[in-house]
Write a structure and sequence with these properties.
With 252 residues, the chain is of the alpha/beta class. Helices cover 38% and strands 17% of the residues. It has one domain (13-248): 3-Layer(aba) Sandwich (Rossmann fold). The strands form two sheets. Strands 1-3-2-4-5-8-9 form a seven-stranded mixed sheet, sandwiched between helices.
Length: 252
């Protein structure tokens, strides 16, 4: 039965498969839908897949404003716990903020590896970030720019909140600081996937890669896609690379 409070089409999903689990984590203001194609692909390859809905997302914007970055981490922890009930190996796969959460998971939890797609290291420099929590009282929202998706059909059907809540941007900034602390401690295998055409995170991804001290780290670069690479024109390359990484780090 569908939850009447969740945006139609944005529901979390669970596909049963083998003993290797994939936790799919969507981005900031996004929904599980942006991870669904990837989930369907990985499930067809045999994996168990759980596409979670992060706290405050895919319902109404006031729900997001009330959540804090710790709530998003807890959403991931709960998803990992569910997969761990039936899966011997569990991987965290995240898009954008989901990638940030995947890196934090690689530091905190007993996972087999992390796949981080279009993941930022920092938000764009803006003096207002330091006062965003207070600023949100008088400037509650920030408008979004045009979609960066090269896949026009996917852009038309993409589901997310129409703008960024200022208060939530402050939480995202705090989450990034938590990721900064986690990166040097990560020992698990990490795969970073980014598009050179994504001006939102390409340079950030190179910084994350340079700061990772784990022995097993890899970066895979696309040429044409926008930020939401799980829905864009090179998505099959993303899915195939993720499959290879998961199989290479699965303990039998």
């Amino acid at each position: 039965m569908n939850d009447p409070y969740i945006m139609p089409g944005a529901e979390p999903f669970y596909f049963q498969g083998n003993s290797t689990g994939c936790l799919l984590i969507h981005g900031f203001t996004g929904t599980p839908k942006e991870m669904r194609w990837m989930g369907e692909y990985l499930n067809k390859k045999g994996f168990t897949v759980y596409g979670i809905r992060l706290a405050g997302h895919a319902t109404q914007i006031p729900d997001l404003i009330r959540t804090r970055w710790q709530d998003w981490v807890i959403s991931v922890e709960e998803g990992l716990d569910i997969l761990s009930m039936t899966c011997k190996n569990v991987f965290a796969l995240g898009l954008s903020m989901g990638g940030v959460l995947s890196l934090i998971a690689a530091d905190r939890y007993n996972i087999s590896g992390a796949i981080c797609m279009s993941t930022p290291y920092d938000l764009p420099k803006d003096w207002r970030l330091k006062i965003a929590k207070h600023l949100s009282i008088i400037v509650p929202t920030v408008s979004k720019g045009e979609s960066h998706l090269q896949n026009i059909e996917a852009a038309k059907s993409h589901l997310d909140y129409p703008f960024y809540p200022t208060r939530s941007i402050a939480e995202l900034n705090d989450l990034l600081l938590e990721m900064h602390n986690a990166i040097p401690r990560i020992k698990k295998p990490v795969l970073l996937i980014h598009s050179k055409s994504d001006d939102l995170s390409y340079e950030n991804s190179m910084k994350i890669y340079s700061l990772l001290e784990c022995q097993d780290k890899e970066i895979f670069l696309l040429e044409k896609s926008g930020h939401v690479i799980t829905e864009d024109i090179e998505r099959n390359e993303v899915f195939q690379k993720a499959e290879i990484f998961i199989k290479a780090h699965t303990i039998h």
